[in-house]
Write a structure and sequence with these properties.
10 helices; 13-stranded mixed sheet; alpha/beta
C-alpha cells in the first residue's frame, strides 16, 4: 500500500485509475493547506509559544520522513556532549512499539548512550520532565519544525536532495507538510544526501531554497561507517565481500538506502530490496517474506538499516541480519552548523 501510494503521487504509476486517484487527493490538499495556515497564524504570535528556561535546538523538515533527521540529531547531541552540556532529546514517539520506545528512540538510545530521550506528543511537558528529572541544560527536539508550541533557539530544517519538495504538492497529494515558503522560519537549512545528485542539480536546489529563506544553506552527506549486528557490535564494510545479499528497509526514503548500498559496493545496487512502509513493525509473515526472498536469491546475509535493526531478531530463518551504520558528513563549507550549535550553548552560558 505504501509503495502504491508513492508511485501514485509521484506520477510513476500511469493510467486512468492513477490519474483519478491523484485528482481526488488534489481535492483534499487545499483543506490540509488551510489547516497549516491557521496553525502557523496562531504560532506566529510570540505569546503562543512557551519558553522552558534552557536552550532548544529543533531538527525538522517540511516533508514527511526520509530526510535523515536521526543521524543529524545524533551528531548534534555528540557535539553538545563534547562541549560539556547535559543534553536531552525530545520526540513525539510516533508509532511507539510497546508504549515506551519507537524505532527512532531505540536507535538514538544506541547512538547516544546515556542521553535522556523523552517521548511525548506534548513537547513542552517533555521538556519540563527532561529538565526536572534529568537535569538537562539543553534540549534537542527531533522532528520539531511543525511543533511550534515549544519555543526554540535554533531551527534547523533538513532538505533531502533526492526529493526536496515532496513531489511538489501538500499532503495528501504530495509529501509536503508545509509549502516551501515555510522555510522563512528556518535559521539554517541543511541539504542532506548532496552526494546523491550531480553538481548542477545541487546548485539549482540551493538557488530554489534561497528563494524562500535568508537562512544559510549548507550541504551534507550520509556515509556508511560499518556493519552493525543486533548486539551493537560493529564490523568493517569489507565483511560484505563475497556475500550474497538481500536488502530490506522500512524507512521514509528507501531510495537513499539503495544509494548507500551502491556506494559501499556498486554490485549491491542490483540486490533484491524489499521495501516496507516507514516505521514498519515487522511481524512473522514479514520475516517469512524476507526469508523467502533470501532463499530465492541463495543469499547468506540480510542487510537493513539501523532504524529497522532495533525491531528485528539477530537472525531470520538462520540468516544473519546486519545494518549499515550511517554517519553525518558535513561538506567542507558547512561548518556553519557547528558554529550555530556552539553559539547556542555559549549565548546561554551552557558551555
Amino acid at each position: 500500500m505504501h509503495n502504491a501510494f508513492l508511485d501514485t503521487i509521484s506520477g510513476r504509476k500511469r493510467g486512468f485509475g492513477a490519474a483519478c486517484a491523484r485528482s481526488a487527493l488534489a481535492v483534499c490538499a487545499p483543506a490540509y493547506g488551510c489547516g497549516v495556515r491557521i496553525r502557523n497564524w496562531r504560532f506566529d504570535r510570540p505569546h503562543e509559544s512557551v519558553t522552558v528556561g534552557v536552550p532548544v535546538i529543533s531538527v525538522g523538515n517540511i516533508t514527511t520522513g526520509g530526510t535523515g533527521k536521526t543521524p543529524v540529531v545524533a551528531w548534534i547531541v555528540d557535539r553538545l556532549l563534547h562541549l560539556g552540556c547535559r543534553p536531552a532529546i525530545l520526540s513525539r514517539g510516533y508509532k511507539s512499539l510497546d508504549g515506551d520506545a519507537n524505532d527512532e528512540k531505540r536507535l538514538l538510545d544506541r547512538l547516544c548512550p546515556g542521553v535522556p530521550h523523552i517521548q511525548n506528543p506534548d513537547r513542552v511537558a517533555g521538556a519540563h520532565r527532561a529538565i526536572t528529572e534529568s537535569g538537562s541544560d539543553i534540549l534537542v527536539m527531533d522532528d520539531g519544525f511543525q511543533h511550534r508550541r515549544l519555543r526554540r533557539d535554533l531551527d534547523i530544517v533538513l532538505i533531502d536532495a533526492l526529493n526536496p519538495w515532496g513531489y511538489g504538492h501538500l499532503l495528501p497529494r504530495g509529501l509536503l507538510r508545509e509549502p516551501p515558503s515555510a522555510l522563512k522560519r528556518a535559521e539554517l537549512v541543511l541539504i542532506t544526501r548532496e552526494n546523491a545528485v550531480d553538481a548542477t542539480n545541487l546548485r539549482q536546489l540551493q538557488q530554489d531554497i534561497t528563494r524562500h529563506t535568508r537562512a544559510p544553506v549548507v550541504t551534507s552527506a550520509f556515509r556508511a561507517g560499518g556493519l552493525v549486528d543486533a548486539g551493537g557490535t560493529v564490523s568493517p564494510l569489507t565483511a560484505i565481500s563475497g556475500q550474497t545479499v538481500v536488502a530490506f528497509s522500512g524507512i521514509g526514503n528507501p531510495i537513499g538506502f539503495q544509494r548507500t548500498l551502491a556506494e559501499i559496493d556498486p554490485q549491491l545496487i542490483r540486490v533484491k530490496h524489499l521495501v516496507f512502509p516507514d516505521h514498519h513493525d515487522y511481524r512473522s509473515d514479514d520475516l517469512l517474506r524476507i526469508a523467502a526472498a533470501a532463499q530465492d536469491a541463495n543469499a547468506n546475509l540480510l542487510l537493513t538499516t539501523e532504524k529497522d535493526l532495533v525491531k528485528l531478531p539477530s537472525q531470520v530463518e538462520g540468516l544473519p541480519v546486519r545494518a549499515v551504520r550511517i554517519g553525518l558528513q558535513l561538506a567542507s563549507e558547512s561548518d556553519q552548523l557547528q558554529q550555530r550549535v556552539d553559539a547556542i550553548t555559549q549565548r546561554r552560558g551552557v558551555a
